[in-house]
Amino acid sequence: MTFDILFVIIMVLNILFAVTIVFFERKNPTAAMAWLMVLFFLPPIGFFLYLFFGQNYTRQRMFVVKREEDRRFLQEIFLAQHREFADTRYRFAIPEVDEFREAILLLLQNNRAFLTGKNRVDLYTRGEDKFDALFAAIREARHHIHLEYFILNNDELGRAVVHALAEKALEGVEVRLLFDAMGTRAGGGTQKAFSELTDAGGKIGVFFPSVYRVNYRNHRKIAVIDGTVGFIGGFNIGDDYLGKGPLGPWRDTAFRIAGQAVQMLQLRFFLDWHYVTGGYPGPRPRYFPAPGDHGTTPIQIVSSGPDTRWSPIKEGYIKLINSARESVYIQTPYFVPDESVTDALRIAALSGVDVRVMIPCKPDHPFVYWASLSFIGDLLDAGVRAYTYDNGFLHAKTIVVDGKAGSVGSANWDVRSFRLNFEANAFFYDAAVGAELARAFKEDLALSTEITLESYRARSRRVRMKESVSRLFSPLG
Predict the structure, then answer these.
(1) Catalytic site includes residue 226
(2) Cα dihedral angle (431, 361, 234, 330), rounded to 10 degrees?
(3) Residue in 66, 397, 404, 466 annotated catalytic
(4) Active-site annotation holder among 130, 144, 168, 221
(5) Residues 70, 338, 402, 430: which is the catalytic one?
(6) Mind giving me the DSSP string for 342-411?
(7) Which of 12, 222, 231, 233 makes the best surface tag, with the fewest CB within 10 Å?
(8) Which of 327, 362, 120 minimizes the C-alpha distance to 229?
């Protein structure tokens, strides 16, 4: 086949892709125009980019079953709480919760995110602390262990986790491990890497085995032990998350939760497990034990993905920003927001709110890094303060507002997390937890460099070119 014939075939396919984008997919206009430009101005490149990153039309069919199953499980248990909280006469026991009533109602209505109470939260920012706590919880497990991670690498830490799970399976503990096909296989996590666990009686589930598709990955990081202890946050499982990878020291954020919110993490796990394997053990008491009184922190577990009509986590972020009166502190490895998020941050800063955004000083994905800098630059004029974290790689995905409420989870501040990946975050309403998260942010400021308006304007022509090219591809998705 000659190059001319191949080029003609690609152009014909690109025209078909363009027709699909315009008439069948429900992309926003910016993303649609970006895809059309790439398809027609960079035909061969656009063809392969669309094969791997595009084709949103198929997601309506791919995840319709998952969406309906999620709605069926969640509908009844959340309607009663929504009616209760929608009554403006209802008063929450904790003052800061009442301040964020509208955010709670938003997440109840667009995600059925049940507000749980009496939770205890432990915050981890170092991999050593988080994994020590996870291993301790695994060792203490008596009935079941459920893990759901985007990445479980076949390295020293990954093998240690698999070995710990296999030991518990041999003791008769039910072990279910769910991982994303693309994220885990990139780290050597093949079927053989989990043979110790499966030979011991543990069960594994592989989310979306179509590894040639970059979109629609399960980016969640969830662990549930005996239905009483749960973990959620940004840490995957691998040596990188202990600071032993090429990016050096690793700064991340995760919660260990004891209390009613663990039941919502358990439900989230079972919904994803059911979608992958078809199995659901049912709402038995041993999976959903009485939570008890562990603490006082109210939490909503919020999920989003291509199976949700809206973008609940993004909208929760925006609502928190709009609720701010004093401060908004954000940490994220990837800052590629859409216009709704940048508008909310700009308006908050112009209104006198102390808005600060922290990103890494080094890229693990260069295009995303340079695009992040360009979006940061857009906000400096409005008074948003931005920083690069210099002590290794920053992977935390957090927001804390007025030191009273916020979110910790798997969702980055980019269009991929907002629209294309399956994510899970814990939204909390508690001044004690908020103060701890704000304190961690301020401690990181001492290890960071501020991106001032003057330094940004003085960047080199080469950097400007990198930003421009990277930003051009940012709406694709």
Answers:
(1) yes
(2) 30
(3) 397
(4) 221
(5) 402
(6) HHHHHHHHHTT-EEEEEEESS-SSHHHHHHHHHHHHHHHTTT-EEEEE-SSEE---EEEETTTEEEEES-
(7) 12
(8) 120
Query: Residue 420's pLDDT is what?
Result: 87
- pTM of the predicted protein model: 0.85
Token pair for 77: 């248990």
Q: In whole angstroms, what is the distance from residue 349 CA to residue 386 CA? A: 12
Which tokens belong to 450? 């501020």
Q: Give the span between the Cα atoms of 419 and 434, in whole angstroms.
A: 27
336-392 per-position pLDDT tens digit:
999 999 999 999 999 999 999 999 998 787 878 888 999 999 999 999 999 999 999
- Concerning whether 402 is annotated as a catalytic residue, the answer is yes
Which token pair is 477?
Answer: 């998705």
Helix (H) or strand (E) holding 270: helix 261-277
Residue among 27, 146, 219, 319 flagged as catalytic: 219
Could you say which of 226, 252, 272, 307 is catalytic?
226
Low-confidence ranges of the chain (pLDDT < 50): 14, 18-19, 21-24, 47-48, 51, 57-62, 65, 476
